[in-house]
Design a protein that fits this description.
about 260 residues
């Protein structure tokens, strides 16, 4: 089955958006403007992506445009990560390194081993799936690491005073944050097929692909996403914990200046 949706049919889904707005107004949540803005922004962005897909993938430089698109997604992701803790020095580079490395590994495995053909649309889609699934856990890890370093700075200073190395003083926090950030992705992986049908598999099925082929591709993507989340979260937590300490094992200024 190949979906052939008219614009007015897609607009019908706005009924659910208006229901959410109505619930927000009824319960006085104050989210009406945010919901409408998010919906409008998503529509504009997706339509722009659709037009961009049509233009660049008909170009003779489609492959070049695809890789530039992936690079742009990684840079934007680094900026999004930085917004959560802008006071942390070097966080932009840490964010780009974590997202870029994980995305590169996924693309290398899928296209390097011939799981998928290295076509422009496949490169962009797989990179988008990987980054889209990795970003929430990475942002959560950044937020929790920052707040954890600030809340537990007294304990960290005490451990340093007792002779613990920098890694030992921050390791409990890094371990806890990594565990919390990975738990949602682990749970999603655990219930896949029982409760949720993943997007990649659903899209392939709607496009008319063989169900078993769709399942196998989804399994590959899902396992790689789980690994990419783990790698990205580990990089940002370790990177931030190192930025929290000076070479002479004192808390960095950005941790000391943060309010209690």
């Amino acid at each position: 089955m190949v979906a052939d949706i008219e614009p007015w049919q897609a607009a019908v889904s706005l009924v659910l958006v208006f229901i959410v707005v109505g619930v927000s107004a009824w319960r006085r949540l104050g989210l009406e403007r945010s919901i409408l803005w998010a919906s409008l922004r998503a529509a504009v962005q997706l339509i722009a992506v659709g037009v961009f897909f049509t233009v660049i993938f008909e170009s003779s430089l489609a492959l070049v445009w695809a890789w530039l698109w992936v690079a742009a997604m990684v840079l934007i992701s680094g900026w999004v990560v930085t917004r959560r803790a802008s006071s942390v020095p070097g966080l932009f580079a840490i964010g780009i390194a974590s997202i870029g490395l994980t995305c590169s590994v996924v693309l290398l495995v899928l296209f390097g081993f011939g799981v998928l053909d290295a076509e422009p649309v496949a490169i962009v889609v797989i990179a988008g799936i990987t980054i889209g699934n990795t970003m929430p856990a990475t942002v959560q890890a950044v937020d929790r690491t920052r707040s954890g370093l600030i809340d537990e700075r007294g304990q960290i200073e005490a451990m340093l005073a007792l002779g613990f190395p920098s890694v030992g003083a921050t390791q409990p926090l890094v371990r806890e944050v990594t565990k919390l950030a990975l738990t949602p992705q682990i749970e999603r992986t655990r219930v896949v097929g029982l409760i949720a049908l993943p997007g990649a598999m659903t899209g392939l099925l709607l496009a008319g692909a063989d169900p078993l082929d769709a399942v196998l591709i989804q399994l590959v993507v899902m396992f790689l996403v789980l690994g990419s989340v783990a790698v990205s979260v580990t990089i940002v937590t370790i990177g931030m914990s190192r930025q929290a300490l000076t070479p002479d094992l004192r808390l960095a200024d950005w941790v000391q200046r943060s309010p209690d």
